[in-house]
Design goal:
Layout: E1 7-10, E2 14-18, E3 24-29, E4 32-35, E5 40-44, H1 47-64, E6 71-74, E7 79-83, E8 86-87, E9 90-97, H2 101-106, E10 113-123, E11 132-133, H3 135-140, H4 146-168, E12 172-186, E13 189-195, E14 203-207, H5 217-220, H6 226-237, E15 249-252
Antiparallel strand pairs: 1-2, 2-3, 3-7, 4-5, 5-15, 6-7, 8-12, 9-10, 9-12, 10-11, 12-13, 12-14
Helix pairs in contact: 1-6
Length: 253
């Protein structure tokens, strides 16, 4: 029997376990789906498999173009080996088109193209609902300094360029996405890298021709099968696991 692994952290969609080597973690993708700060929950069988494969695909692509990230390799259908990082307590949001909260705040129709990609930040705190915060707050509270923020914006825009191109090539419009950033040390030198995951859980994705939603808004807004939406993204990108079909959602009260 394999030894029980030490759990380091459990979030809404993933579990982190102690890795096999110092400075590594094993990231396990759960089938749980949540929305509205976990007020709405469901178990979507196979979702973790799809997100593991998709995040591997995107992180590997970022590595290939020189964007540093925490991904080392996929271990199996639900787990990947990642580099251990100190997470900056921010969600970094990049918006290309109006949707969700920015549409409500500014009275913009969903799908309105923005003048340029907009980068904004929310403070990672579930109890507070991950509130948006300006750079002044981030610097004042010591979550990051000005050089960090400059580097974060640079990373976020490079990720945006890469993802926008990849999705456009398969007929998908990248509306917006969020990433997390981690600190790693090489001796005394600290650098920032992309962490967490990149998947339909963390992106808004619309079909270019029909504007059909292919992301977690399907679950948030009861627009159909989340599995079908995620599977369509994976199919178009050529990363659909052969055993991730015919899977049904189970709602949790």
């Amino acid at each position: 029997m394999a030894p029980r692994r030490k759990k380091i952290y459990e979030g809404k969609a993933k579990v982190l376990y102690e890795g096999p080597e110092p400075g590594t973690l094993v990231q396990y993708f759960k089938d749980d789906a949540t929305a509205f700060n976990a007020q709405k929950k469901a178990t979507i069988e196979g979702k973790g498999v799809l997100n593991n494969r998709l995040s591997e695909y995107f992180m590997t692509g970022l590595t290939n173009i020189g964007v540093p990230n925490h991904f080392i390799r996929r271990l199996n259908m639900r787990e990947q080996l990642i580099r251990q990082v100190e997470i900056v307590p921010l969600e970094v949001i990049v918006r290309n088109f109006a949707a969700g909260s920015i549409s409500k705040r500014l009275g913009l129709d969903e799908g309105t193209p923005l003048p340029r990609p907009i980068v904004e930040y929310s403070y990672k705190n579930d109890a507070l609902g991950d509130p948006l915060v300006p750079e002044e707050y981030i610097i004042a509270f010591g979550w990051a300094n000005q050089q960090d923020l400059d580097d974060i914006v640079s990373l976020a825009l490079r990720v945006n360029d890469f993802l926008s191109g990849v999705f456009y090539g398969v007929g998908i419009k990248l509306i917006d996405f969020k990433i997390e950033i981690g600190r790693v040390w090489d001796g005394d030198f600290m650098r920032l890298i992309v962490a967490d995951e990149i998947s339909p859980d963390s992106c808004r994705l619309w079909d270019i021709k029909t504007n059909q939603k292919l992301d977690k808004d399907v679950f948030r807004r009861d627009l159909g099968s989340l599995t079908d939406a995620y599977s369509e993204v994976a199919r178009r990108l050529g990363v659909l696991p052969t055993n991730a079909t015919n899977i049904k959602p189970t709602l949790i009260n």
